[in-house]
Structures are given as C-alpha cells and as structure tokens.
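Hi R.,

Here are the chain sequences for the assembly we discussed:
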Amino acid sequence: MIGPSIVIKGEVSGEEDLLIQGRVEGKINLNGNQVSVGESGEVYADIQAKVIQINGKVTGDIIGKEKVIISKSGNVHGNIVAPRVTLEDGAMFKGSIDMDPAEASIHKAPVAAHQSSQSSAPQLKASGLDLKSV
Amino acid sequence: MPNASTQTSKLLPSLFQRFSAEQAVTVFHVGAALPETVDFFSDYRCKLHFIDVFPALPIVLTKDAALTPLQQFQELLQFSADTFFDVCLFWDLFNFLDSEAIAALQTVLRPHLKQSSLAHAFSVHNRKTPQKNHIYGIQQLDTLNVRSRRTTPPGYAPHSQRELTALLDDFRVERSVLLPDSRLELLLQRHRTVPGR
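And here is the predicted structure of the full complex:
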C-alpha cells in the first residue's frame, strides 16, 4: 500500500496488488495484478494493470488487461483501454473508453509472470513492488 | 442520483442494428458518461468519446466573449487526426445552439466524420416546445434512461425541424419521430454530397 502521506514521482512496477492512498506521479505498471486507487489517492500517471479500480482521482491513460472499474467516488481524466469498463453511479469521467469484449475471454487465461528487471534506475523495492525514479 | 425515468427510443435500434458485434464502432457522445451507457456499449467493440459540452453553454458570439463559437468548439472537441466517428449522439444539444454555433460545431467535427456517419438528436416540433432539462443514458437498444439535470443549461432556443435541417450541412434527417411532449427524435445520416472520408 502507498499510504496517504506518501508521494512517489517515478515508475511503479511489480508483481503484487497495489492500493494507492497517497500521490503517485509518473507511471504505474503492474500487468498481472490489481491496482486500486483509494478515495484519498491521487494519481497523475498512466496505469497499466490486470484490474484497475478507481475510488480516488486519476489523471492519465489507463490500460486494464481485464477490467477497469470507476467507483462512485472516482474521478478520471484520461483515456481507458480495457475489455470491460464499469462506471458506477456518481463517477466522474472525461475522456475516451476503448472496449473490446472479445478481449475479455483472452485475458482471463493465466497471465505470464511480469518481469520488471529491465531498469537499472534507482529503485525502492518492497516485497515485489518496484519504484523507479524517472 | 437525480430523478430517473425511462423513455422508449424508436430510432436508436435502427441506428445500432447497422453495426455487427464484430465491427468496431467509434462514438462521439455529447454529455457526461453515464453508467448505463458505458454498460450498453460493453457489448460492442467500440471507442467512446465522452465530451460534456453543456457546462460550456451558452456558446454564442457576443461583443464581450473572449472566444468565438468556433474557438470554443476547437477547445472543447479535441480529437486525434485518426479519429473518425461512426455515430454521434448529440441528444438535445442543437436546442441550445444558435445558427453560428451549429456551424462552428460542424466545422470542428467535419474532419472526423465518415461518409457513413450516423447521428441521433432530439429536436422540437415547434419552437414553443418547453425545455426538457434531461440527461440521457442508453439502458437498452430501445430504452433511454432519463435523469434530471442538477442545473439548467442556459441558451435554450430550439429550432424547428425545418430550420435545423437547413442548418445541418453535414447531416440530413433520415427519420424523425414525434414524441408525446411535442419533441422530435431524429436519426441523422451524413449528407452524401459532403466531401470527406
């Protein structure tokens, strides 16, 4: 979890689910996992993950391999690409949504383990989560 | 949630039945993204562009206005050059735009239309038809979810169908249905004479 008082500027990647209650600026890449932006979360970054749930504020493009959910407290400004997108009543959204339901069945197959060893940039590594500065 | 009710649409089925499940559909939706609309389109391969023009109203040319209607639409509607719409859902936007603003909207939208583009809109039977302060979502192919707006958009000055037809350079009215409240539901098709994609 990225707590409410935490601010990260850089790239976040890894192989576990992530809950963001703080602020992230840069890029988030958790291809095989879920990213949740909590109600106090503020993300100014592109997000790529298997499932993305947004209860807070996101400015950036979002790629969900399986599903993107914008909850009633969610506020998203950006473009979404995902097989399925759910917008809850009260959610705020500005941008485009690119959906292909046929892709949903493809991505329900086990996702290959995501490797994040490509960078030699300074990293903060915490139990599978990489935070790379940019 | 604002009060919601449903309304039957006679023309949306004939619009969407022209697209197969395999066909990718690009949609320009004027207004806020609503849950039921996103859910409806989840059965399609689609790209939805939601732009809520209503908070920017009134879009009129005045001496004091910082931007012309054309400049306002250029700011509001920013699409990538490779965006071409199969469907435009205008809802009741035309009832809030004067002739200059409708021309400006079309100027900005024109590069992103196909020869086969279709559109849906609400107009009025005559200009005395009272304002409906509604937001529309698509619940099913033939059913709209109608919600009350929290605020009343300014600039309601509807055009008769005849006037609107004359103002639309890019679309012609393919079918219209008179609704019980003296409004018209319109299915629009791209003018074949307009050069474009």
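The mean pLDDT of chain A is 84. Residues 81 and 98 of chain A are 5 Å apart (CA to CA).

Let me know if anything looks off.

Best,
T.
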